[in-house]
Amino acid sequence: MRINKNLIFWFFTLAIGFLSCKKEETISDLEKLRKATNSSIVDSAQAIASITQQKLQELYDISALYTSGNKNTALDSLNYKQIQGYFLTNDSTNVNSLLQELDSLNVRYVKIKNVEISSKIEGEDTLDFADYTVEYKNNTQKTIAEFNKKSEYKLIKKPVKFKNEFKFYFVKIDVSEKDSISSGVTK
């Protein structure tokens, strides 16, 4: 009988040991940014690039959802207002050009890739840009097209209860580079 008591004791000890071990969970990049403190080193450019990619993905997802709908339901009007909320000004030209592009290609899914941020100084203003690749897919998730795009964004400081918070807005979703050749008479 003594062997059985020792065997049972060791079995329970091992079982408790296995159960007390913590399982390691994977943490998303967004969760890492939320839990980051001043003591943890996070490159601000990487953080801004990650936030920019998230905002671009959200904007394109909602826009693709809007273009796939009837555009005349209550849900569609809410989606349209939400799309406008991503822009600094309530100008419909940015929204309409984006929606027109998605609608003309029958885009149902969008993937944002290779986001790189840059800044340009013009006079006293600093303009922030995001260069990225957007991949358009149809309803069967087959790639329709990929485009390299450039968008201008702005981070606006909005303190809430003595905390520094920033609101993210797009100024223009598809910025075209100015041609270096001046327009004139051609023969």
Automatic annotation (TrEMBL):
<protein>
    <recommendedName>
        <fullName>Lipoprotein</fullName>
    </recommendedName>
</protein>
